[in-house]
Amino acid sequence: MSTFPGSPRIIKGGIVLINPSTSAVERIITLQYNPDTLTRTFQIKGMGGEGGDRSEALRLTGPPVESIKLDAEIDATDQLETAQPGSAVLQAGIHPQLAALETIIYPKSGQLQSNNRLAQMGTIEIAPMESALTLFIWSSNRILPVRLTEFSVTEEAFDVNLNPVRAKVSIGMRVLSVEDLGFDHRGSSLYMTYQQNKERLAGMFTGGALSQLGITRTI
Questions:
Q1: Which domain of life is it from (predicted)?
Q2: What pTM was estimated for this model as a whole?
Q3: How many CB atoms lie within 10 A of CB 37?
């Protein structure tokens, strides 16, 4: 990165974990390098289509299911060259960064042990464990409540102790809308802000003219 005083500050993308009950921030994971590409797909929720009622073809039943996929790089090579004895990167390489991402999809070990004790006591029903609210942040325009749906790690280089020092992480996410969370959930207000901001940005688009499409009469 250039150190020239006039260089713009680069905003990083990342993931933030929020306590769903208190809204307290539990962890902030900043991507070391912003991915070159971000793939977004939408599954439209409509009443028309094959086998549907033709009279309902233009009706939407809810927000589309939006999915996001990205590939992120984590590299400690430069840090190893300047690391001080006893530093975390010398002791564990990039294990801490990988573990911070991986534990998003794990229930906490304490919860597993607690549920095991309840099961041994003969508790008939054990409630599923609730994870932290995961937010994917890609600038102030896109703060999205998400659920990780895919996660893979390709470790590409190791130190003398076989700690990974360079890796590529592929992450797939599904955006959680008000239909997934319910309007009373903290994540729903963030989703509504995201959709309303999308509508605001769409309003900034000036659009074209029918003449540009080769049409000279009113449709």
A1: Bacteria
A2: 0.84
A3: 7
